[in-house]
């Protein structure tokens, strides 16, 4: 049975998409002819001939590069656009449109602040001139320990305008977690917040700032960003240890002119870090050219952003979606930044934001959708007239979440579910304005992404769950890992299993309709009687029950060759784990999927552990329950809620149902 179609574009909408314009351009300028009714043929061309596809984007987006070759070498050692010189920030400002604001900023305690392109350019010029006077050159590292505020945007753009390399962490990260990230890359400048607000509370972070200064010996200067509303609660003492944002915001040596250092295609742009739950976080280094091409492609074609539209994604500076949000500026959007809790003072906060700011593209994590479902949020059909596209990522959105959006948020919204990651700072699979939205499925593999689902023998398959692989190079793949001079760690992370082919570490199902379903991490596989089960299947079934607030499942191999699969649940308030509720959970799993999905035990826990970036921690819990020590199982500095891990040290998972 085909899943329900929840949305499909009208003929008028099809004709006005950026993809339709691109297809027309290809026919007129490159003699490639694709129809809006057959996206699949365009995708097949883009992965069959990646050099010509990516070169077409250089020409389509009018990137004025000179290069000797588009693509040379084989994965993982490839070179793109050799000889090209560019700057990611320059392209952002080259596409500025003064008819619209650059940024709209809102926090828990501030009404909307509008920042024009003129203001943004001047602020970036001031900070860039200050950094240059501090001796910052191309290749130097500048880091931010900042909330999602305009100062973080300005600091990032100023850094990359100089050809320096940016990296950031959210101020809810603890000192140890930030130090183990930033110390790897030896930064010269630190931008740091004195504190941040979340859920109506103020959190002072000057002790963390001091710890960073003490443990980052390469720092030449620290710039602290105050929060004027909480100046009395946490105003740093003036000293030689740092200067304030106000001192450089209108830097005396600044001019209104903003200059850019053009760098080679693969010159590092920013460094993103893996979660690091089981070891030292990987310092994933992305290049100017690869990110520019990929972000132009995804935001223009797969998000279908039009100039002047308002683009919002709820994120912190510690998640790759923060970088991705700024890429919307390349497509002519106004970006909306929000600093604070998505559920403060109520779960309606972000829905109200979408209404009040007339947001056109609204992005959120799947967990927020499920929380809104359980809180019984329901908007009138005409509440969000400006909302055209709703993006979802972070974890797989269950089919019930798809349906709920159309029943309770907006019946004619285009739901763009996407999946990618820090490794590429984009999505492999995601939205497509030319295609229908099927309940529970991601619309397509993105242009240029040669994704396949491999079985145990490395054979591509359709309609069967398999290992997600990428068989052709993409410019957005990391240029390297920092402090990995011979590329060994990079190679082992992606190319060890299938030489010359990227193994991403997810289970994926590619359907006969060429839609996609992501089923969770393949290294957290549940193996029941030889059948592989993605953990996301369990979560989407169990967590739709109102009595279940959260859940986690692991598969523990036994000495006799069998396995034991406990399910851990967090209950809603005033709910008890009775035999009746246990039976309901089992019946739901059996009904939704199969008897193989039924756990061997159901155990109540007070909370589920998460990484700082919001992913469930499965593998470390599995290691703990198999008897490994805490130190060998998990890096506690990478855990958002460490107490949740400690609960599992006290659990004997072999409790029968």
Outline the structure in words.
The protein is an alpha/beta fold. The protein folds into 2 domains: 85-434 and 445-516, 3-Layer(aba) Sandwich (Rossmann fold); 529-648, ANL, C-terminal domain (GMP Synthetase, Chain A, domain 3), CATH 3.30.300. 30% of the residues lie in helices and 24% in strands. The strands form 12 sheets. It has a 7-stranded mixed sheet with strand order 6-5-18-17-19-20-21. Strands 8-7-9-12-13 form a 5-stranded parallel sheet, sandwiched between helices. A 4-stranded antiparallel sheet has the order 26-27-29-30. Helix 3 packs across helix 4, helix 6 (117-133) packs across helix 7 (150-161) and helix 8 (175-185) runs parallel beside helix 9 (206-215). It is globular, with a radius of gyration of 24 Å.
Describe the structure concisely.
With 657 residues, this protein is an alpha/beta fold. It is built from 21 helices and 37 strands. It folds into 2 domains: 85-434 and 445-516, ANL, N-terminal domain (Rossmann fold, 3-Layer(aba) Sandwich); 529-648, ANL, C-terminal domain (GMP Synthetase, Chain A, domain 3, 2-Layer Sandwich), CATH 3.30.300.
Map the helices and strands.
Blueprint: E1 5-7, H1 11-15, H2 18-29, H3 39-48, H4 50-60, E2 69-74, E3 77-82, E4 85-86, H5 88-94, E5 103-107, E6 113-115, H6 117-133, E7 141-145, H7 150-161, E8 165-169, H8 175-185, E9 189-193, E10 195-198, E11 201-204, H9 206-215, E12 221-225, E13 243-244, H10 245-249, E14 263-264, E15 268-273, E16 283-287, H11 288-302, E17 310-313, H12 320-327, E18 334-339, H13 349-356, E19 361-365, H14 366-374, E20 389-393, H15 399-408, E21 414-417, E22 419-421, E23 426-430, E24 437-438, E25 444-445, E26 451-454, E27 466-470, E28 480-481, H16 488-494, E29 502-510, E30 516-521, E31 526-528, E32 531-533, H17 535-542, E33 548-553, E34 556-557, E35 563-564, E36 566-571, H18 579-592, E37 601-604, H19 619-625, H20 630-633, H21 642-648
Parallel strand pairs: 5-18, 7-8, 7-9, 9-12, 12-13, 17-18, 17-19, 19-20, 20-21, 36-37
Antiparallel strand pairs: 1-24, 2-3, 4-14, 5-6, 10-11, 15-16, 16-28, 22-23, 23-25, 26-27, 27-29, 29-30, 31-32, 33-36, 34-35
Helix pairs in contact: 3-4, 6-7, 8-9
């Amino acid at each position: 049975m085909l899943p329900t179609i929840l949305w499909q574009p009208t003929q008028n909408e099809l004709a006005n998409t950026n993809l339709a314009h691109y297809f027309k351009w290809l026919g007129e300028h490159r003699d490639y002819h694709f129809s809006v009714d057959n996206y699949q043929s365009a995708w097949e061309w883009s992965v069959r001939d990646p050099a010509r596809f990516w070169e077409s984007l250089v020409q389509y987006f009018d990137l004025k590069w000179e290069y000797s070759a588009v693509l040379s070498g084989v994965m993982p050692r490839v070179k793109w656009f050799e000889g090209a010189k560019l700057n990611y920030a320059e392209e952002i400002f080259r596409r500025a449109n003064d008819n619209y604001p650059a940024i709209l900023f809102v926090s828990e305690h501030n009404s909307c602040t509008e920042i024009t392109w003129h203001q943004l350019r001047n602020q970036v010029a001031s900070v860039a001139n200050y950094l240059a006077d501090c001796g910052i050159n191309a290749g130097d590292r500048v880091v931010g320990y900042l909330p999602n505020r305009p100062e973080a945007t300005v600091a990032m753009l100023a850094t990359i305008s100089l050809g320096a390399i940016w990296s950031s962490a959210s101020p809810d990260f603890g000192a140890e977690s930030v130090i183990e990230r930033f110390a790897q890359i030896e930064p010269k400048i630190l931008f740091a917040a004195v504190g941040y607000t979340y859920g109506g509370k103020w959190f002072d972070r000057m002790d963390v700032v001091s710890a960073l200064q003490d443990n980052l010996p390469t720092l030449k200067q620290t710039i602290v960003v105050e929060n004027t509303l909480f100046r009395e609660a946490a105003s740093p003492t003036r000293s030689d240890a740092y200067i304030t944002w106000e001192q450089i915001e209108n830097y005396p040596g600044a001019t209104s002119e903003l200059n850019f250092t053009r760098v080679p295609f693969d010159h590092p742009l920013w460094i993103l870090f893996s979660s690091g739950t089981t070891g030292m976080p990987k310092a994933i280094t992305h290049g100017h050219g690869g990110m520019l091409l990929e972000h132009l492609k995804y935001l223009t074609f797969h998000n279908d952003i039009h100039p002047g539209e308002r683009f919002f994604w709820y994120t912190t500076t510690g998640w790759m979606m923060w970088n991705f949000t700024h890429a919307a500026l390349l497509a002519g959007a106004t970006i909306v930044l929000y600093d604070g809790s998505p559920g403060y003072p109520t779960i309606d906060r972000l829905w109200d934001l979408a209404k009040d700011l007339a947001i056109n593209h609204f992005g959120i994590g799947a967990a927020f959708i499920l929380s809104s479902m359980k809180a019984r949020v329901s908007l009138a059909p005409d509440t969000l007239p400006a909302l055209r596209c709703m993006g979802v990522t972070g974890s797989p959105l269950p089919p019930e979440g798809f349906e709920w959006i159309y029943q309770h948020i907006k019946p004619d919204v285009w739901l763009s579910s996407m999946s990618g990651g820090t490794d590429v700072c984009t999505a492999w699979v995601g939205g497509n304005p030319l295609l229908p939205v099927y309940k529970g499925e991601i619309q397509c593999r993105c242009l240029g992404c040669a994704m396949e689902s491999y079985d145990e023998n490395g054979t591509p398959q359709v309609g069967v769950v398999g290992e997600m692989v990428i068989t052709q190079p993409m410019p957005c793949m990391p240029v390297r890992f920092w402090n990995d001079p011979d590329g060994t760690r990079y190679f082992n992370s992606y190319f060890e299993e299938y030489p010359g082919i990227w193994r991403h570490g997810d289970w994926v199902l590619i359907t006969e309709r060429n839609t996609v379903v992501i089923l969770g991490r393949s290294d957290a596989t549940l193996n029941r009687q030889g059948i592989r089960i993605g953990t996301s299947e369990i979560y989407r079934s169990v967590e739709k029950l109102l009595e279940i607030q959260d859940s986690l499942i692991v598969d523990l191999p036994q000495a006799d060759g069998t396995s034991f699969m406990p399910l851990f649940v967090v209950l809603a308030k005033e709910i008890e784990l009775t035999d009746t509720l246990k039976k309901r959970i089992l019946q739901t799993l059996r009904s939704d999927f199969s008897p193989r999905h039924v756990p061997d035990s159901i155990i109540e826990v007070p909370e589920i552990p998460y990484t700082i970036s919001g992913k469930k921690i499965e593998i470390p819990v599995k290691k703990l329950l198999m008897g490994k020590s805490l130190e060998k199982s998990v890096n506690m500095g990478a855990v958002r809620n460490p107490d949740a891990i400690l609960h599992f040290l006290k659990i004997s998972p072999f409790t029968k149902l």
